[in-house]
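Subject: Protein record for review, amino acid sequence with backbone structure tokens
Why sent: The fold of this protein is of interest and is recorded here as tokens.
Notation: Tokens come from a learned vocabulary of local backbone shapes, not from coordinates.
Attached in line: The record itself begins immediately under this heading.
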Amino acid sequence: MKSIRVSGDFDDNIYGEILSRLPVKSLVRFKCVSKGWQSMISNDNYFIDLHLSRTKTRSSSSTLFVIVRTAEERTVVSMDLLNDVPAVIRFPIQLTRQEGILKPVNGLICSYYKDFDLGRTAVCIRNFMTREETPWIEVPTENTKKKVYFQTIEHGFGFDVTTKEHKVISIRQTHIKASGKMFCYIVCKVMNVGRKHYSAWRMIDDFPAYMIQGNGIFVNRSLYWLGRNSIPTSNCQNKSHTKYIGRLSQVIVAFDVPTEQFRSIPIPNFIMNQTDGMYSFKSRIVYIIEVDGHIALIDQLENIQIAKLWIFDEDGSGHQKIAANATIGSRDGNWIEETILMPFGHSELYLYFFESITGTNKLVIRMSMVNTTFYTLYLYDRENKTFMQVEISGMPRNICAPSDLVANFTESLLPVPKKQQEQ
């Protein structure tokens, strides 16, 4: 183990070994013990990385990050559903109604807001555990001389394992009507977030000819979005124009964070052509989650309480482990199907949303209906195909809407930069 300098009078390795196993809340308090401890906990990259690595391997890696909404505010809490009595920790932050949050990566959270009236968007990187945050960083916009029909702005937040920097990607899709046809003007920009500085935004030219839906999901080294099909009609430097021709989600658009290269993953016809007798693929609820380190599609069939989990095992590395839980098994080589029969009647529930718990075979299910006296989530065991209802106490009172976000959360000491890197 690398030596960690905290004091000249004691064994540095012993200090590092002990402190790297403690929760962030304790370490933040220990900064006042000495200048050496303060420097190690705040600035020693080796110690910070060691602490994060050990936190990910502990049971606390099953902690969930939840945004709940009351009549007065949106607040952020964390909980561990695998404990016998799930404890709720409330973060000292309130979110505005305009503020969105991407799923946490290594304990860092990327917030964003969109002002469509002014055509502006900005992001903020936070570490809720250390209470550090960047200023709001506005994404530069380009003016278009054409009349704007409407805009969508989607984001992604990921980690570059080669440089140990996080990256934020912002994708603006401006829909323009011209000559009776609808065109989409796409601008994609990325920003590096280091430990001391964040970079200026820079353009990504090679954007695929698809319009994306929703914010990106980070899995391993890539960000993923559902993509709608479109046909390029013309191109110019740093920008691309595409013609919108349909509503059907046909591909998964992937962005490799280290290389900053896009690629597309076709969704097979045997998934898209499925029907539950009433709803085709394009009108069902379909979204991406992570399962066992792989991306997966959740395909919710609305008129019967069935959800399909389609796991994409791109390189075949997890095929045997995943297939052990599969209902039907492998389909088309790399897609593996699991069928989840929901224990809810349609009158009780309209929508439900899944999130996997890292390192387990369990899925968390949050519902679109809320009981105001307690907060309820469901755990689904993929191996045993069983459900367990979990009632959470200690949540904010008067929850008036479903959770905006439920995601895995690993606390960390990672610092948050306060200023932009000089050009």
About this structure: The chain has a mean pLDDT of 77. Residues 45-57 form the longest helix (13 residues).
